Amino acid sequence: MPNVLVVGSGGREHALGWKLSQSTKVDKVYYAPGNGGTENNIEISVNEIDKLAKFASENKCFTIVGPEAPLVEGIVDEFTKKGLRIFGPTKNSAQLESSKIWAKDFLKRHDITTPSFEVFDDAEKAKQYAKSVNHSLVVKADGLAAGKGVIICDDTDSALAAIDKMLVEKAFGSAGSKIVLEEKIDGEEASFIALSDGTMAIPMATSQDHKRIFDNDKGLNTGGMGAYSPAPIIDESIAEQIQKDIINKTITSMAQEGNPFKGFLYAGIMIKDDKLYVLEFNVRMGDPECQPIMMRMNSDLYEYLDACVDTDLAKLEPISWKNQSAVCVVLSSKGYPESYPKNEEMLGLDSQQSGTFVFHAGTKNEDGKILTNGGRVLGVTALGDTLQSSISNAYSMVDKISWPNKYYRTDIGKKGLIH
Length: 419
Ligand code: GLY
Hints:
- By secondary structure, the protein is an alpha+beta fold.
- It has four domains: about 5-90, 3-Layer(aba) Sandwich (Rossmann fold), CATH 3.40.50; about 120-175, 2-Layer Sandwich (Dna Ligase, domain 1), CATH 3.30.1490.20; about 190-315, D-amino Acid Aminotransferase, Chain A, domain 1 (2-Layer Sandwich); about 325-419, Phosphoribosylglycinamide synthetase, C-terminal domain (Glycinamide Ribonucleotide Synthetase, Chain A, domain 4), CATH 3.90.600.10.
- The protein contains 13 helices and 22 strands.
- Strands 11, 14, 17, 18, 21 and 22 form a six-stranded antiparallel sheet that branches. A four-stranded parallel sheet has the order 2-1-3-4, sandwiched between helices. The protein has a four-stranded antiparallel sheet with strand order 5-8-6-7, sandwiched between helices.
- β1, α1 and β2 (about 30-35) form a beta-alpha-beta unit.
- The longest helix has 21 residues, at about 235-255.
- It binds glycine.
């Protein structure tokens, strides 16, 4: 039986490893570098691709990659060259996330609906354009900017400031040396994640993230402060439409272009008046969306990842999901997404509650004490027979955990109750 190597250190990676460790087809699960809640941690960082490959080879590991950075660096290409089994897209396919311009051009080329846009590398020309349009804009850095490279602008002045920030002040370095000015669509945002073997894709359970730091979607954008699954905003008919018009079309078109996409394909979608707009792609699982999705998955995740590597997803049944809701409330350190304290001891982590799991993210284990070690610290994730009960279960566990600068949103999942 193979071992598994999970590359990454966040809540998403803990959830993937937790699920894979339940597979009867997997021996041991290692994490590189992992966190205070994961076992079998290997001290190799996510960008040390040669060292990761050496470890995977010596320990007969099947590898799954959590974050985008090593995918964009080409970890899958390197592992594959060495004959190692790894789940995720190649460097070329990862362009769907690594370059916003590449992704927007791809969408346009294949007639997949996306908000109108223009590309600029000159601040003055970008500003002239911003002043000339009669709609609000979203200003996007072309490259990866740790989730901060998208600025939503409600008026012309804020668009001009965002253009300056990227093209003049170079706030995101070379990632912002080219920008996309995209028409802002006012609808409801949803995520849709599918699993692909390069020729076909099957959907994961639906989910919705909460990106802003404060309740009622106020304040700065974060990596995600909580998520729930299923997301009623994506009803069966919208899910079918997304699968057909966005996911399948993307997978077919990537293959036609010679870049078959294997991995998790995450589409950020805006829904307005039943029309679907692709805002962006990620080439990996969402974090924290992964946590509630893994809690609801009945099927053996390993079988699906393994089949994707062999381009053989068609042999498997659709994934089976628990007929329950799951909610993940992210506990962060006060100050995140800006500066925040670290090394605070957490109490209450040994509290037990059935149907609930505390996934670790920014934590470390120091001599048996679990200390905070990042902005997003934990993902308290609970199942429930209804969305309301999973929300109550998650928050009841949240109350049992404490540290001095603990912070969380109090409205995770509320959006789903409205539908
Ligand atoms: N939660 C959003 C993301 O993973 O990008």
